[in-house]
């Protein structure tokens, strides 16, 4: 029982459609876990996504952030010669990996080191959203 029918929630949960869509999209991940990645909590408001992109050049990677969605794509340039492998254990397929970002989370920077793509994120909560102390008047 891997799939759940969430349609009954649409009838009674008003304003939670985005959350339900997130749950449904999590069930429908079809990329089979490729490429492998880590999500790390660096600090209270800082995160790091590390994606194993061995075999991809920097020019073959594309990172896009739009509407609380981070999309990382890897596409190999077309090769002129076809290789004949005796054994192929290294995946060389193209990929697209999507990450849903919470409100106020922004991408700070990205770097490629030793076959690992590091994407640093930070939650920047506006001052009006932070808790503030209310003084009681006499």
From TrEMBL:
Signal peptide: none annotated. GO terms for biological process: protein stabilization. PANTHER family: PTHR47062, SMALL HEAT SHOCK PROTEIN IBPA. Associates with aggregated proteins, together with IbpB, to stabilize and protect them from irreversible denaturation and extensive proteolysis during heat shock and oxidative stress. Aggregated proteins bound to the IbpAB complex are more efficiently refolded and reactivated by the ATP-dependent chaperone systems ClpB and DnaK/DnaJ/GrpE. Its activity is ATP-independent. The keyword Nucleotide-binding does not apply. This is Small heat shock protein IbpA. Belongs to the small heat shock protein (HSP20) family. The keyword Cytoplasm applies. Pfam families: HSP20. It comes from Duffyella gerundensis. HAMAP family: HSP20_IbpA. Keywords: Chaperone, Cytoplasm, Stress response. Monomer. Forms homomultimers of about 100-150 subunits at optimal growth temperatures. Conformation changes to monomers at high temperatures or high ionic concentrations. Its main location: cytoplasm. GO terms for cellular component: cytoplasm. NCBIfam families: PRK10743.1 (NF008013). Residues 28-138 form the SHSP domain. It is found in: Cytoplasm.
């Amino acid at each position: 029982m891997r799939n759940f029918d969430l349609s009954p929630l649409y009838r009674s949960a008003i304003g939670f459609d985005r959350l339900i869509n997130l749950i449904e999209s999590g069930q429908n991940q079809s990329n089979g876990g490729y490429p492998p990645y880590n999500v790390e909590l660096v600090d209270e408001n800082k995160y790091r996504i590390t994606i194993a992109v061995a075999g991809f050049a920097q020019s073959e990677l594309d990172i896009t952030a739009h509407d609380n969605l981070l999309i990382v794509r890897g596409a190999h340039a077309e090769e002129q010669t076809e290789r004949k492998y005796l054994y192929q254990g290294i995946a060389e397929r193209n990929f697209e990996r999507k990450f849903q970002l919470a409100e106020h989370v922004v991408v700070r920077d990205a770097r490629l080191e030793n076959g690992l793509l590091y994407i640093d994120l930070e939650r920047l909560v506006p001052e009006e959203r932070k808790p503030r102390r209310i003084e009681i008047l006499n």
